What does this fold into?
Amino acid sequence: MKKLKIFSLYIALFSVALSGCAGSKTRLKLGETPEGEVVEAEGLSAVTDDLIGTKRAALSDAYKNAVEKVVGVYISARTLVDKAITIQQNILGKTDGYVKKHEILREGKEADGIYHTHIRALVSYQEVKRDLDSLNIVDLNGVGNPRVAILLDETVEGDSSQTAACTDALAQGLLERGYKVVDRSEMAAIRVAEATQQLASGNAKAALTPIFQKLNAEVVITGKVTVSQLTGQNLGGLLSYRGNFSGKALKSQTGEILAAVTIQGSGLDATKEAASSKALMVVGKNASNEFAGRIASQLAKLSTVFVTAKNISGIDRLSDLKNVISKTPGVGEIYMRNYQVGMAEMEVKMNGANSSDLAKSLVSAAKLKAKVTAQTQDSLEIELEP
It folds into this structure.
């Protein structure tokens, strides 16, 4: 009898242990983890005689929708549409690599006759961001593709250049970097020579007004390019010319200087025309490399508020924040720059609003429960309540 009681005690303890193990299996918790973000998603599939195939198709669709939630953190809806094929082929087409683990919450055929699978999935947002960066999607249209007018005074040994080779090379370099450039034929709308002279003499306002109004150019690049022959060199009958460029980029509406550049370049050929033209082309190409980055950077500073949000509990909370920002009057595109450890950093393009307008909008949004912790003209730090 005593042995039976001891045996019964062992069975009871074993049962408790088993039930404890079963109860210790917890579901993935929504929100951020060191490995990524846990999100909920639903997948759909038509019901077929192949039940296993139906389940796999619904789960695959749920995976795609989970990853798409994370993709939506980093890019705007417009970019998602514009780059749909690229994103589908390179990101959403390989979701298995981003989903590190998942848990099925429920699944089965529902009233609509479709097989539904509801999951929680751990998605590596770090890997999603890395691949979006490699595709140059995250920074798409970061400066809004500004339209540029180029007015240069090009001379070769004191005479006006007949080729405008520097202007053409500069324009081509900017086009390759996503800028829009006013075509030479469109320049007929203004007095080019007069505007160029006014800009060179410092009378920018008189020159910029028609450029902005008639050419719709947001940026004007102006300057002087001089090319002269290099002498005293034994080049085996070839001629060497060096070009010197000094110019600046102006915001046409206000006259603000966005960038100032001084560049040199050389050309070598058998004739004066060919060698000087090469020097002009090299100068133009080098100038485009300098101007492209500086103009973009300065325009971003002039029209951007950098928002840092702390205590972000998950992607759904972040989506609420982005929705409030996007609905603020005078706000344009939102670009996600960083998201990790409960913190998000965004560039918010402004079309008339300022950091104060944005702060008021965020604080007044009852759903967010946000408070401003720091603010400047071009930056805003907020913290969300749990």
Observations:
- The chain has eleven helices and 15 strands.
- The CA atoms of residues 11 and 158 lie 104 Å apart.
